[in-house]
Amino acid sequence: MADRQDADVPALVDRLFRHESARLVASLTRSFGARQLQLSEDAVQEALIKALRLWPYQGVPENPSAWLARVARNRALDILRRQQNWGNKQDEVMQIIEQNAEQDPIETQDDELQLLFLCCHPELKRVDQVALTLKIAAGMSAEEIGRALLIQRKTIEQRLVRAKRRLRTCEARFEMPEGAELAQRLDAVLEVLYLIFNEGYASSTHADWVRRELCAEALRLVELLSQNQATRTPRGFALAALFAFQAARFPARVGSDGAPIRLEEQDRSLWDGRLLSRGLAFFEASATGSEITRYHLEAEIAAQWVLKEEPQWEVVLALYDELLQLNPSPVIEVHRSVALARTGSTGEALDALERLAEYKELSDYLPYYVALGEIAEEAGEPRIATAALRRAQELSLNETLSKRLGHRLSAIEDGSS
Known about the structure:
The chain is mainly alpha-helical.
């Protein structure tokens, strides 16, 4: 056992959960079959709970990931042995497990891709595909998924139960799809990775404004897709470029107090040049096809931010207009309104944001209220600004951001009194 302080164990297990749970579930699902997806997920979660219980007293193993893999596999076997149908399949399953034991279950990339495509099975509705993959591949809670999809937590929980049941009844297989089915599922996989990155980029349910581990996982998975001959596509490269461009700004995006720093106030010397180079390479690869997807447009918008000293806001606005034609969304409308304000049309941008208030999906969307408050202040509308910033303060889980919003509210109220 390694010598680690007890206080480090919860943080270590949390990191392992984020980084290793999908790999562990994928390995177990390969061994036991797609019908046992729930069992595999439960076994991994129980292994993590056991680690939290034992490691503070026994010490952390030299190889924590391998320890979790062994405990999860043994737990899954215990459950299977209690099932009535285990007897006639025991030899077959044990043979598969022995074969798989020759591989490192934590580093088998094909397993992870097959798990992603299993969760995006065509028998599932798109929203259920996305929710299931966010739960299993990213380890996100039902509440986090609900906020990412703008759906209530209870509804997400119900969808997850139905999705797993549907995979069992349709006899889904743990394998890579082919042909038209591969292309169909790939769209859902890319959407899932997009949502994972977004949740990390501006966390909706976490005290930290940026959750780098989620963003890193989304980037890692989209790179897996780009390295696989069957799944590398121009839109996948565009998504990888978007992730790399955005992640490159992380060192300068959050201050020492944990609050976000606006783009124009960031220290560009802190940006990650390696990630910028990777983003450029992905962006160039995305131009190899004839299609223009929303990922291409968003990557181009991100490129405007990171590759130019000053974003050309007229160009950004035009890109958002094109993006809205491909993917109408109130969230994109919010960002388009911010770009509109940056072109000098502050009043028009404020009108656009006020019209968006009718969308129920934005009722708990923190960036909407921050944008509305800032642009209303710029437009000389203190009443609208204070109401919006108060709502933003209510929604923020980041203590430092809440304090900043409070200071801004005080300044607006003092100036209008």
